[in-house]
Amino acid sequence: MPRIAPAVEEVLAEAISLRRDIHQHPELSFREFRTTDQIIAALQRHGLKPHRLESTGAWVDIGSGPIVLGIRADIDALPVKEETGLPYASVHDGIAHACGHDIHTAVCLGTAITLHRLLTRQTTVPVDHLDLTGRIRVIFQPAEEKIPGGSLEIIRQGVLQDVPRIIALHADPSFNVGTIGTRIGAITSATDTIRVTLTGRGGHTSRPQQTQDVVYALAQIAAQVPAILERRIDVRSGAQLTWGHIQAGHAPNAIPATGQLAGTLRTLDVDAWDSASELLDEVIGHVAAPYGVKVHLEHIRGVPPVVNNEPEMDLIEDATRFELGSRTIELASQSMGGEDFAWMTKQVPGAMFRLGTRTPSGPTYDLHQGDYNPDERAIGVGMQIFTQAALRALVGAA
């Protein structure tokens, strides 16, 4: 196998330019119209024939013959105010690429163009001795940030049909640029939204015995339910219920008639995710029962964990070792965050790795924050890994 760093270098400036352009013009889930146009235009300039999805997003095949590998990027931004001060900072107030999807998009666009140039012999990297019959499908997915995720649209529209395996990446500011994080098995968690609404007879705070005190009941649910779940669900599942919103009443001397509590339930285990809904209904009902309030539980199913399949993870790691060296691979911990690539890995075998975006000795940013500023050198790293993995998939299928 040839090292493909020189071929990546020929395309890298264009990939970085596209990243800066879509970073400056971020678009929310299912509204990525300009982003989709830019991706399609860039692919067409290189002679590729991309396909637009029904709303936003696109996909393109490189090569000929049966599909041997899918590569996925997500393209949407977040409703977050950018605070980086970059010359190409977001021009849309309150919208920013604070999760690195602009990096993902640039990596996959650069990979598609690099692969096309390799297969059509437009680069000096020698591949003539390799049997590269087969197709790589590169998918630019909309709406990863909108539960239950735009990957369900990819599946519904048949884009995964005949794709035997798929790989993806996610920017990670906890890893230095030039390194990646990998893990066999679940690498993210299931993420659900929980909303509890209580109603009861309100009244004056001087006579709580004449009321159905929703404030006190909410407080008991907020404190007791997470602790009870820890005793009812296998601790190895990593079930975690965390409240982010609680609201009831307005006056200090009046017990209100209604109140709300909302949070997220995250589980590391698929079986626990499947059983959590019934258990939550039971536990919340029991905690609220002594106060005589009515309970309405809304359990909004999010996404299951992304479960990395070993052969696909091996493909990523082999490509990384060959291009960057064995010391560039680190063990990634399982994240409590959700990722809708999980729907794809439920359809076909797949794997996602963590792409380091932290500048060595530089600040450590966090995802979903307005100051997130990834090191752009990660784009070339991701392109090398994906392109090398694609070549290996083509050779292995020949």
UniProtKB/TrEMBL annotation:
Family matches, as InterPro entries: Amidohydrolase, Bact_exopeptidase_dim_dom, Peptidase_M20, Peptidase_M20_dimer
MF annotations from Gene Ontology: hydrolase activity; metal ion binding
Cofactor binding comment, as recorded: The Mn(2+) ion enhances activity.
Residues that, per the record, bind Mn(2+): 99, 101, 145, 170, 368
Pfam families the UniProt entry points to: M20_dimer, Peptidase_M20
Cofactor(s) needed by this chain: Mn(2+)
Entry keywords, A to Z: Hydrolase, Manganese, Metal-binding
Domain Peptidase M20 dimerisation, first and last residues per copy: 194-291
Record flagged with keyword Manganese: yes
PANTHER family assigned to the protein according to its UniProt record, in alphabetical order: METALLOPEPTIDASE, PUTATIVE (AFU_ORTHOLOGUE AFUA_6G09600)-RELATED (PTHR11014:SF63), PEPTIDASE M20 FAMILY MEMBER (PTHR11014)
Protein's name in the database: N-acyl-L-amino acid amidohydrolase
Protein's organism: Enteractinococcus helveticum
